[in-house]
Amino acid sequence: MLPEFLDRLFYLVGEAVVLLALFVLLLSIFVALLILYSFKTGNFFAARIMLLGTTLLESVIKSLFWIAGADDAVVDDVGVRLRNYINRREFIKTPREQRFIFMPQCVRSTECPAKLTPEGIKCVNCGRCNVGEAKRYAESLGCRFFIVPGSSFIKRIIKKYRPRAIVGVGCSMEIKEGLDLCHSYAIPAQGVPLSKAGCVATTLDWEQFYEVISENK
After folding, report:
1. Concatenated DSSP letters for the chain?
2. From CA 109, how far away is CA 111, in angstroms rounded?
3. Rounded to whole angstroms, how far apart are CA atoms 58 and 52?
4. Non-local CB neighbours of 216 within 8 Å, separated by 6+ positions
5. Is 60 exceeded by the pLDDT of residue 2?
6. Cα 137 from chain centroid?
């Protein structure tokens, strides 16, 4: 039989654990409702608190979506839009000449003749896809444009050139990871999600892409 003080201690610890679990659950439900509100309206309420809650409680929130029969991809989608919203002010203050654009290789044509180099794939403007036109337009603004096969290239380029701002294109998960990476380097970034994800022949909203890279204060 346990001494009375130990019995009391275990009781208090158990009670604290239950209260903590209840608090986490209620907070997760609150953040999940905020995410649904933002997804439906495009507006953000208490953006930084919402981002902190989404970051810390992501797995719990996604579980709540799963239990409710909702698509948990909404969490990643809103997370990207939330980061964009928070970063936008600093991003548009950055001169275009100091912005780097990262385009995933999957957007290229399946017949792309470009070769891989230490700084990504070098577009030869063959006209088989929209990437060449996007590159010409971005560079006409003064931006640096990279076509990358993976995150290791992005890290290498960031460490080498230290960009002041970044635009990244990819699926929601890739953008989320990229925005987290940029945050670790204190670089304001904007993510442009693919409208059709996959490994090859992906697509994006080019009008949205041009709008983001052109934005200025």
Report:
1. ---HHHHHHHHHHHHHHHHHHHHHHHHHHHHHHHHHHHHHHS--SSHHHHHHHHHHSHHHHHHHHHHTT--THHHHHHHHHHHHHHHHHHHHHS-GGGEEEEEEGGGS-TT---EEETTEEE----SSSSHHHHHHHHHHHT-EEEEESSHHHHHHHHHHH--SEEEEEE-HHHHHHHHHHHHHTT--EEEEEEEE-SSSS-EE-HHHHHHHHH---
2. 5
3. 10
4. 92, 96
5. no
6. 23
Q: How far apart are CA 107 and CA 128, in angstroms?
A: 11
Q: Give one word for 69, left, alpha or beta, with left for phi > 0 and alpha for psi -120 to 50.
A: left
The sheet that has 165-170: what strands, in order across it?
Answer: 115-117, 120-122, 144-148, 99-104, 165-170, 189-196, 203-204
Which domains can be identified in the chain, with CATH numbers? 4-71 (no CATH), 94-214 (3.40.50)
- Over the stretch 14-58, which tens digit does the pLDDT of each residue have? 777 778 888 878 887 887 888 777 777 777 777 777 777 887 778
pTM of the model: 0.80
Q: What average pLDDT score do residues 190-212 get?
A: 87
Pick from 57, 22, 54: nearest CA to 38 = 54
* Structure-token pair, residue 156: 């290498």
Report the mean per-residue pLDDT for the chain: 85
29 burial class (0-12, 13-18, 19+ CB within 10 angstroms)?
Answer: middle
